[in-house]
Backbone:
């Protein structure tokens, strides 16, 4: 059994706002839901499956189904694995569609870390996590844990801050073309290295932006896709995997992408050479570097060399990535970057990325999410999409 | 997470103690470092809990260890959060503990002596205990030659 070809992404929508004081989080979910459905040529009344994650206010998908007025649901999912949730949920939606459980699946994300509102779900529960007193008491944060992963990668493989900076440079080169991007200035390697150290060895410009906003995608069956006018990229493969501290034996130099990636490639039946564009989760530059290695675009430890010389820059780099500017420059709505990774991959496959960064003849795209912390525990989710069925 | 200030100006927040982690924290009151060890498969368990993630047993003993180890990785936050707001810069580290008969767990902790920027991965460290208001102590580490 496989989901290859079993579902299509018929609609996507990224909220244009990055600082949104005049909307509630629930309203933002509503705006992005309607936006993605309209993009597909569908309405709220067509939705028979709803997927939300920890950012949704209230009682998981129940509160939001009620708020949105969804009345015909036969399937729901509240997968909460941080920013990778939405990449995973496209795979879950495709599996549910393949199993005949539903035919129009709506996935929404929204939140307001800049202008208040309810804190993202999850954070408030961490005090009851069994590991709490063995980590947080020592002053850990998401930043410190990614920094420790970066430090170990540098130690084992000689990766440099300048190599990490190349990732930010590529993202900023793309973001200059995105009028909605939170940061639109092109930066240089030296500017990244000269930015304040926020947690050695990571600089401020190694870190993603913090933005209000959200996004949504609509996953539909092939039968529904055929009735729509919109180009609907097909889901070819999906893989996911958690990685955790493994009873004290954590290896900080790789992510769960070493497991999620091969699963997605195998299901899709494609190879690395087939990938025309990649959305790579970029909470920090080190997240991108490790993921590129773990997905197999280069050998472990070679990521630093791989990302130099414009390899990630669209349209002609070896692996054009994050052409919207990514989480590093464009948008990281409510500290969860997976949704925008899927959305930009769909834009590329439709030929609707900005002309300056549109990859020519983009037939196969990959979107990868990393939720949680690569320094402790996280979920990796890999999605491979095709322009045509 | 208020806690008292300790040498190195790091706070020592009170731990949240569960039934299955109480022996760990009670030992810290006596400045001893103990690890849970599965009575079925003999695995050391980290983080401390009353469940063996290797074999599924809920039967654990508590074994005192030397408290020495090696820095596996480290980072220096320049701005602290919460109880650590005034503490930065400080050193967060994974320290790989020495245990009898093999590789020990890599535990998150602080290395508290000296200039944070002079710490290197691979440095040898030994445990120190920073007392909390609740009468327990946080195991932290200082470098040894």
Residues:
């Amino acid at each position: 059994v496989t989901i290859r070809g079993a579902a299509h992404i018929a609609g996507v929508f990224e909220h244009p706002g990055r600082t949104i004081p005049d909307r509630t989080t629930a309203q933002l979910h509503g705006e992005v839901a309607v936006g993605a459905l309209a993009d597909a040529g569908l309405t709220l009344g067509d939705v028979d499956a709803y997927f939300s994650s920890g950012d949704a206010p209230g009682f998981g998908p129940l509160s939001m189904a009620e708020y949105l007025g969804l009345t015909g649901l036969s399937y729901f999912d509240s997968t909460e694995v941080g920013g990778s949730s939405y990449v995973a949920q496209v795979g879950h939606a495709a599996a549910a569609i393949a199993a005949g459980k539903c035919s129009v699946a709506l996935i929404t994300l929204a939140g307001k870390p800049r202008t208040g509102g309810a804190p993202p779900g999850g954070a408030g529960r961490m005090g009851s996590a069994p590991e709490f007193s063995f980590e947080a008491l020592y002053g850990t944060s998401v930043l410190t844990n990614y920094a420790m992963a970066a430090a170990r990668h540098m130690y084992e493989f000689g990766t440099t801050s300048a190599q990490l900076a190349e990732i930010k440079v590529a993202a900023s080169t793309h973001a200059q073309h995105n009028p909605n991007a939170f940061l639109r200035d092109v930066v240089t390697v030296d500017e990244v290295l000269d930015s304040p150290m926020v947690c050695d060895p990571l600089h401020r410009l190694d870190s993603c932006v913090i933005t209000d906003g959200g996004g949504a995608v609509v996953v539909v069956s092939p039968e529904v896709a055929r009735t729509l006018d919109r180009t609907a990229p097909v889901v070819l493969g999906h893989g996911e995997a958690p990685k955790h501290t493994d009873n004290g034996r954590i290896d900080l130099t790789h992510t769960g992408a070493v497991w999620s990636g091969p699963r997605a490639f195998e299901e899709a039946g494609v190879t690395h050479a087939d990938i025309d564009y990649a959305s790579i989760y970029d909470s920090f530059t080190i997240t991108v570097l490790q993921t590129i290695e773990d997905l197999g675009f280069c050998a472990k430890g070679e990521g630093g060399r791989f990302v130099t010389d414009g390899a990630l820059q669209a349209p002609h780099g070896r692996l054009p990535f994050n052409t919207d500017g990514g989480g590093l420059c464009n948008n990281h709505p409510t500290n969860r970057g997976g949704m925008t990774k899927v959305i930009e991959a769909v834009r590329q496959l439709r030929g609707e990325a900005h002309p300056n960064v549109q990859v020519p003849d983009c037939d196969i795209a990959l979107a990868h999410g990393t939720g949680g912390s690569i320094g402790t525990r996280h979920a990796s989710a890999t999605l491979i999409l095709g322009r045509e069925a | 997470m208020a806690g008292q200030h300790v040498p190195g100006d790091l706070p020592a927040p009170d731990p949240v103690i569960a039934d299955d982690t109480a022996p760990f924290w009670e030992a810290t009151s006596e400045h001893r470092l103990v690890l849970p060890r599965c009575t079925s498969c003999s695995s050391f368990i980290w983080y401390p809990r009353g469940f063996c993630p290797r074999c599924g047993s809920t039967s654990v003993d508590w074994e005192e260890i030397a408290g020495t180890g090696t820095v596996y990785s480290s980072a220096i936050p320049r701005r602290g959060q919460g109880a650590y707001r005034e503490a930065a810069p400080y050193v967060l580290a994974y320290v790989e503990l020495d245990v009898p008969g093999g590789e020990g767990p890599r535990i998150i902790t602080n290395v508290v002596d000296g200039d944070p920027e002079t710490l290197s991965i691979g440095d040898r460290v030994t445990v120190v205990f920073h007392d909390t208001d609740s009468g327990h102590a946080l195991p932290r580490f200082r470098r040894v030659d």
User: Anything to note?
Assistant: Chain A has twelve helices and eleven strands. The radius of gyration of chain A is 19 Å.
